[in-house]
Specification:
Strand 4, helix 5 and strand 5 form a beta-alpha-beta unit. A nine-stranded mixed sheet has the order 3-2-1-4-5-6-9-7-8, sandwiched between helices. Helix 1 runs parallel beside helix 11, helix 1 crosses helix 12 and helix 5 packs across helix 7. The protein is built from twelve helices and nine strands. The chain has a single domain, classed as Inosine-uridine Nucleoside N-ribohydrolase, Chain A, CATH 3.90.245. The longest helix has 21 residues. The protein is globular and about 50 Å long. With about 300 residues, it is an alpha/beta fold. The structure holds alpha-D-ribofuranose (RIB) and calcium ion. The site of alpha-D-ribofuranose has 16 residues, from helix 1, helix 6 and helix 11.
């Protein structure tokens, strides 16, 4: 039996592959998928989660969560993920339903488990606020977000944290074991033409993933000048699958909430300047080849 996990996400091209990796790798037991508005509206990211699960024959419960950040207006990333939030391939009508409960209630019901968060942290912060006792029932929160270096939505803020910095501050301050997988590592997970070719060779599901990656690559090239797009979210899933895939160090992490120019930055004290006890494990390295082997292997198993 694999490690019980729940994936809170905002599909999103990289979230879509994260769902497939979490469902297809035998090291994990995916108990459910919850959605949060960030890459696109809640309606669109939830429809996209249903589309991905339908395409892959994944029948876990899907619950919709927060339609907006705790305090701030929603800022979507349609420039990267497109109008639908999952532009590229044409998906058939989804058959996997959405359960009639809020994501926070589904998360609460599915614990104890590891929570993997690959979107804004709004749902996770609400869970910890609504059910403080769940801090003891969450094995670990492994999140894609932040960076030990530069940002991708402002010079120093990464998108998932920047969308809802107050939620991120609650998570990092919760006392729950947190692992932060930031841009400094996910930018090593580049979807090269070789990776696309490996996906295409897998069959129908692999071809759908390849089409997703082609679109994702086009927007990332246009927006950021990347020759190949970084597949952020599956790296957080890979950390749970096999911690040796993603090297981490202990550090104190704080989220900037008042910075005029640095709102949403993750202030990662790698050198202990502030003398504060570490509150997170922070990713600093990725075994790229073994990472792609796990991703391709999981999709092969599903499709
Ligand atoms: O900054 C990258 C993160 O923002 C990823 O989770 C991507 O899906 C977007 O949500
Ligand atoms: Ca995401």
């Amino acid at each position: 039996m694999g490690i019980p996990v729940v994936l809170d996400c905002d599909p999103g091209h990289d979230d879509a592959i994260a769902i497939l990796l979490a469902a297809g790798d035998p090291a994990l037991d995916l108990l459910g998928v919850t959605t949060v508005a960030a890459n696109q509206t809640l309606e669109k990211v939830t429809l996209n989660a249903r589309r991905v699960c339908t395409a892959a024959g994944i029948t876990v419960p899907i619950a919709a969560g927060s339609a907006k950040p705790l305090l701030r207006p929603l800022r979507i990333a349609d420039d990267i993920h497109g109008e639908s939030g999952l532009d590229g391939p044409v998906f058939g009508p989804p058959t996997v339903p959405v359960v009639d409960e809020h994501a926070v209630e589904l998360l609460h019901r599915l614990l104890p488990a590891t929570v993997i968060a690959t979107g804004a942290l709004t749902n996770v912060a609400l869970l910890l606020t609504r059910y403080p006792e769940d801090a003891e029932r969450i094995t670990e929160i492994v999140l894609m977000g932040g960076s030990t270096g530069r940002g991708n939505i402002t010079p120093y803020a990464e998108a998932n944290i920047h969308v809802d910095p107050e939620a991120a501050a609650i998570v990092f301050g919760s006392g729950v074991p947190v692992t932060m997988v930031g841009l400094n590592v996910t930018h090593q997970a580049l979807v090269t033409p070789d990776v696309v070719a490996r996906l295409e060779a897998l069959g129908p599901l692999g071809r759908t993933c390849a089409e997703l990656m082609v679109f994702f690559g086009e927007t990332y090239r246009a927006m950021f000048g990347f020759a190949a797009p970084p597949l952020h979210d599956p790296v957080a899933v890979a950390r749970v699958i096999d911690p040796t895939l993603v090297e981490c160090v202990d550090a104190h992490v704080q989220v900037e909430l008042t910075g005029t120019h640095t709102l949403g930055a993750t202030v990662v004290d790698l050198d202990g300047y502030r003398g504060l006890a570490p509150n997170a494990k922070v990713a600093v390295g990725l075994d790229v080849d073994r990472f792609w082997d796990r991703v391709v292997g999981a999709i092969a198993r599903l499709g």
